Amino acid sequence: MVPSARALQANLLTVHERIGRACARAGRRPESVLLLAVSKTFPADAVRAAAGAGQHHFGENYIPEGSDKAFELNNPALIWHFIGPIQSNKTHPIAQYFQWVHTIEREKIARRLSEQRDPGQPPLQVCLQVNVSGEGSKSGVAPEDLFALADEVAALPRLRLRGLMAIPEPTHDESLQRARFAQLRGLLESLRQRGHDMDTLSMGMSADLEAAVMEGATIVRIGTAIFGERI
């Protein structure tokens, strides 16, 4: 069921309040955290309603669905983030329709995005996905392989390497949540020390955004708390 415009506005306000409280605990400014509304499986009308409530950044996991929404809405005020797994033979629509990509884990994917990005478009803003949990079923580069990948991606034209992204294993243990997010923050700091100009930590979802904000998240990816259960 698609939430009403009034429900979306209320849900967005609630999420912003959660971010604000977490920032207060962390001694941070609320505007230092970008709310990315994850609109996967919801129709363009839901995105349009959320945009009407002041939300401008939207995350999509599926290439055809996300590309179709971006094309249908055709609104330059909306910023589209690709946050799903990427197959090397399906990079062209991402390079064409999205402004951000959070899930680069291989140099081949980054190279194809670079080659397929129109030179007339602004650089594609990209993050490297890191498997901080060590789960075999999870996407992401292993921490020990991250530095070589960062060097390769940073050298590609038409991409701008902005930071790191992670999806740790689900847990209600806030101390474990924070440990995983702190690990990602430490990796970002190490990359900065190596000379990479990176400013983005994409981490935290509906169930663990507070822990992510406490550990330095600059983008939180929120779906269920805004749009409700997936349809």
CATH topology-level fold name: TIM Barrel
Distance from N terminus to C terminus (CA atoms, Å) equals: 6 Å
Provide the spatial order of strands within the biggest beta sheet: 7-6-5-4-3-2-1-8
How many separate structural domains?
1
Query: Under the CATH scheme, which architecture would be assigned?
Result: Alpha-Beta Barrel
What's the total number of strands? Answer: 8
Helix content: 40-55%
Multimerization status: single chain
Largest sheet: 8 strands, parallel
Counted by DSSP, the helix tally is 9
Distinctive features:
231 residues, alpha/beta, TIM Barrel, eight-stranded parallel β-sheet, 16% strand
What's the short story on this structure?
The protein has 231 residues and is of the alpha/beta class.
